[in-house]
Design a protein that fits this description.
Length: 103
């Protein structure tokens, strides 16, 4: 294996996009529907600035809907926003979990 066998740090999974399946006619469409860097949920400070700054300020929560990020609610602080981003979004059967959050 060469020094540059895979892009990115060795402690993170590869971000290389999977190859398109030649038998799947919608493979290119499905590839475009993936969120950037496979981040399905994210948070942003309500008043701008870096996400790691001012951890006590409220955050806007955004969720990927297949085409773009849409507002999913608010969090009171950075810790709550991190909990929401990292909580499980599907159950063991693969169906969505209702988190009870909304606008």
């Amino acid at each position: 294996m060469g020094k540059h066998s895979r892009p990115g740090p060795p402690n993170q999974p590869s971000r290389a996009a999977p190859r398109l399946d030649a038998d799947d006619r919608l493979a290119a469409y499905n590839k475009r529907r993936r969120p950037p860097l496979d981040v399905h949920r994210r948070h942003r400070p309500l008043h701008g600035g870096g996400g790691h700054l001012r951890p006590e300020e409220p955050r806007a929560l955004e969720q990927w809907n297949g085409f773009s990020y849409e507002p999913a609610g608010t969090a009171a602080n950075l810790a709550e926003a991190h909990r929401w981003v990292n909580e499980q979004t599907t159950d063991t059967t693969g169906s969505p979990v209702d988190t009870g959050r909304g606008l």
